[in-house]
Protein 1
Amino acid sequence: MTLLYTEVEEELRAAVRDLLADRCSSSAVLGRVESGVESGMPYDAELWKTLARDIGVAGLLVPEELGGAASGAGGASAREAAVVLEELGRAVAPVPYLSSAVLATQALLTAWGAAGGEVAGELLGRLAAGEATAALAVPFAASPYAPPAPAVSLSEDGTVTGTVGGVIGAEIADVLLVPVRLTRGTALCAVETSPAGTVQGAVRVAPVTSLDLTRPIATVSFASAPARVVATAGGPETPWVREALLRGAGLLASEQLGIAEWCLATTVAYVRERRQFARPVGSFQAVKHRLADLWLEIAGARAAARNAAARLAEAPVAGDITVAVAVAQAHCGAVAVHAAEECVQLHGGIGMTWEHPAHLYLKRAKADQIALGTPGDHREALAGPADLPAPV
Amino acid sequence: MNIVVCVKQVPDTATERKLRSEDKTLDRDAADGVVNELDEYAVEEALRLKEAHGGEVTVLSMGPAKATETIRKALAMGADKAVHLHDDALHGSDALGTSYAVSQALKKIGFDLVILGSESTDARTGMLAAMLAERLGAPQLTLASKVEIEGTAIRVERITDYGYDKVEASLPAVVSVVEKINEPRYPSFKGIMAAKKKPVETLGIADADIAADQVGLANSWSEVVDFAAAPPRAAGTVIKDEGDGGARAAEFLASKKFI
């Protein structure tokens, strides 16, 4: 197993990077942040359509038989998805890739793999083709090691009622995947947000003031919203949610890597250009040693993130991925935050400017750090497999 | 319809470009190679014409071994096959030599329509389309901002200083395009995967019946005598408004042909 990027991964990266360079410059993202607050739509739907449909990134995890690009024989896998996330992190792109093409898709894939469900297959086909966007109605901060109990209930008439907070990607979702509690066991339900004839107000997405402006969270409420059951489970567990959160956490590491790389590259470029005392500020040891340390941290983060992506790719449906994911998440979150902090600091006054994108990266890095399990959750999860139990 | 698109790998304009001091040719290893931007519009136009009229799109690129990256991008965008004209004897060819080599390769491949970008970002002669047409005895329709094909007739809107000309010719023809013509697509993941399986034929000068004494640095008609780094940008002209500021600004723009 090599963790280096393959030729296909580099070409995919080039395509995504070209698109983002054309359509997702930092000034475009800042503009979207401004207008998103007013319009209630933080995402760039046109950019997402080009990414999902034309470049085809939405189907990277979906098997070929369902219309996606994933296959065991040289097709796409979590490694390609990880490269896309690196680029999206590097641009803090306001697109629902993580929420739709990773989290929601993984939940559906688990449901489809377990029971071969018709609903899951149909939804995956639509998601892979970029015809629909989905979101998993679970708090973004939920830990994969202790997924929250479903807060929504399913009535006998096939409608769901309840409220979930802290959801990402709901504003742009055509389908919401909701874990629900049954009298005995749990289920995963699919709620269409805009089918013809839906009772108005059955699904409400209320924006919440969020730290991360490029991927804000929202509160989603269902009031007797018509739903389709995607899969059911007998116990109190929600296996689809657990799997989605765990695999999502593994891939989130690549987004964090992308954030950190942008911060380092941008800061290095800045300190080479900015002069003080008649020399570039980057020539001062106090500055360059900090950046050299950061480079080392990022090298470690890249190894951890690539390892997680490769393990996920090797075990697309099951398998022991916990160690790789927990190592990556325990490490990459802090690296991204540190990189973003250094970026703000070493840019001096300009780093504190609203018009400079540095704050977007710091906020994204901070939100990512507590998303899908905190570094502490992931370290705790490592205790068992690494045979290092916490002191009693 | 058999469409051949000529693409060139050029050093990334975002990086510093250098000439090699020993033979005064472009140092292609010093910068990242990218597809010449205008050639992406040519590939896109070829793909659109193929989608509308059927046929096949062949990519032709002349360049060193690493030009295969450029060829793969064109294939990932959707071209069907590629020909890579690659021979050390071609190194340093000027526009005349290049047009001779490319025209020989085109004769070997066969074509109904040749499309290329109107100029490259490195050499910037903008001459290749005209030279190719002359050598191939085909009509040249340069600087096209719109291409229409009906049967064997090809109609082109050709950008000029005063607007555009409508010109018409019959196939086979050589067309060069400007960036106004379309919006090039991004390679899709499936396209990238499919490109790996598409045939890329490599031709040396003997394979394409190219006479060695007409190409290469030694046989170039033009010669780079000397080169120097561009001088740092001089201060611009400052127009102080004394009531006639607007008129003088307009005069300046007119003298540079902006208005």
Note: DSSP finds six helices and eleven strands in chain B.
Protein 2
Amino acid sequence: MIWDDFLLRAGLAGLGVVLAAAPLGCFTVWRRMAYFGDATSHGAILGVALALVAGLPVTPVVILTALALSLVMLRLVSRGQSADTALGVLSHGALAVGLVAVSFLPSLRVDLESLLFGDILSVRPADLLVIWGGALVVVATLAWRWQRLLTATLDADMARAAGIDPVRESLWLTLGLALTVALALKVVGALLIAAMLVLPPAAARPLANTPERMVLWTAVLGALAVLGGLAASLHLDTPAGPSIVSCAALIFVVTRTVARQP
Amino acid sequence: MTLVTLDQVHVLQGARQVLDHVSLELRRGEIVTVVGPNGSGKTTLMRTILGALAPVSGRVTRHPDLRIGYVPQRLSIDATLPMNVARFLSLPRRQSPQTVAAALADADLSGMQDRPVATLSGGQLQRLLLARALLDAPDLLILDEPTTGLDQPGAAAFYRRIEAIRDTRGCAVLMVSHDLHVVMAASDRVICLNGHICCHGAPETVASAPEYRALFGSGTQGALALYKHEHSHTHHDHDHDHGSHR
């Protein structure tokens, strides 16, 4: 039953990404860092190109480039001045340069479409191991820093007074973001990673009255989007990554309509 | 006991000099208020004491075990972050439901555990922020413009609360305020700041200092006296209380 197998792997890969993206996506929304997700995932494309050119293993290089790009951004944001423009330049610059670099590679070696939109249906068992391993590392790290991250998110000076360094907590989040982007690249593709970070938390918001409950709802709704999107993709013969994100958008509309507005 | 010492502290923000050779000491059990016009470096001074800003020269020395309770001027919780009152009190350290209930009762917020923080009124939020800062049994309580948005009776009541907290817990209190009339009367020591320390001392001393009058004019004396009067009237046995707690 090969048919069942690839679908099972696709589902498991999607759920692994959801596991890491749920807490990280919540922080992305709470801290208004959606652009961070964008730029980090654009950095991932650059990473893929670099890895292929240099003949290095893809995942570690992607993590490193995504991390490097988000550290540069963190620095720009902390300086404050016209961060918005600088971020736009960095984010779109990385995307464009990455795409140009990919175009130099023989087309056999890289499938541009799967890079941009993901290729969840071709996930191999080894990918699954990387995705779930990475997701567990992200979740464990965020759980370990949880109280400190939340306090720093609420008010930087309130955190400092309690002996928490808000800059250090931002670094932990940045690290988690780079890792998650690298994991999700195969599943939803570089263009839609930011969507998976932002849409499920936005959909979960009206259902929750504490940060923890919002993370749980985000995971549940994210999982629903992955399974619903895969099913739709199978029945309607649509691309899997965009179907998952469409499903998440639909869930957002439903929860916002049904639940009371906060 | 000296909790924090600033010695000739010099702080820049960008290229602008915000604090110029500021020296001060904060001791346990005293209420110190920093007053000054907008842009005089009040918030910078407070953030330097918190450790958020590093001086380019001079030294900030904190007592090694210093616990700081910080009450921000306001709390801008992003609308996407669900935060109810009980959860907020459990940051950064988790608190038991009993502790939370007791803190809320103390802050006149009984039974509000499940209320979203964003729906509280200005006064309620102010009391919640204070309650959270007190949960960690601070040695030093720092309040940034604590009565912004409160009317004068509300502000006076808030300062009495601060005095009562100091009396029962013996912590030091540092307040930053431009709410001259009321806050000065509630302080043991006033520091008048305008980039550098213009003058400091007991409220009456500062209020009559020429440097202070140059910054704020002389119209505050009457209000100061008014508060003093009202204060001793409503808290008849105030000084007596002091004695029994020490």
Note: Chain A has eleven helices and no strands.
